[in-house]
Write a structure and sequence with these properties.
The chain has about 180 residues and is α/β, with parallel strands linked by helices. Helix content is about 45%, strand content about 15%. The longest helix is centred in the C-terminal third of the chain and has 22 residues.
Length: about 180
Amino acid sequence: MMMIPTVELAIRQGIHTMILMQALASQPEPIKHLKITAIGTGFENQIKQTVGHLKSFAESINLSLSYNVLNPGEALGVFSVYGLWSMIGQQDRLESLMKVIKSIKPRVMVMCEVAANFNSPNFVNLLIEALFHYGAVFDSLEDCMDGEDEHRGITESMYLGEGIRSIVAAEGAERAVRHVNIDV
């Protein structure tokens, strides 16, 4: 049985992990077991609930899933979807995390981050950049998810709503959303 150990930096609701699981299960030589280890999360109740949803989803696609502690010497993949943007304003935390990732020597690292300049000191530029980005995200949600879908509501309110609020209404250290262009 082929197994893929994966380190998840920000498990949150697990939507991206479900996409990964579905992709792994639908390969010509499907993966039969996915082992997830989350680090640096700090939301134990949310993690338990998310892991429950992930295990239920895994069963529905005939994929074995375990949530275990990181073991030294394992071949690892690091999967981070929107896990690093919150550290842009705190370079010491970002550098510490990068040192940890480097020390576990992953064989592969997959990162998905927004490539948009949400760190501009010019409000008009910031607003235009955010408008294009969030407009595209809401359009894609409209095409991919039913308006009554619970996960869509969570995504819109928890992730997108907080991001928009941070960009439009927060300044200085209080602005949590600070995506940057890829060249940064």
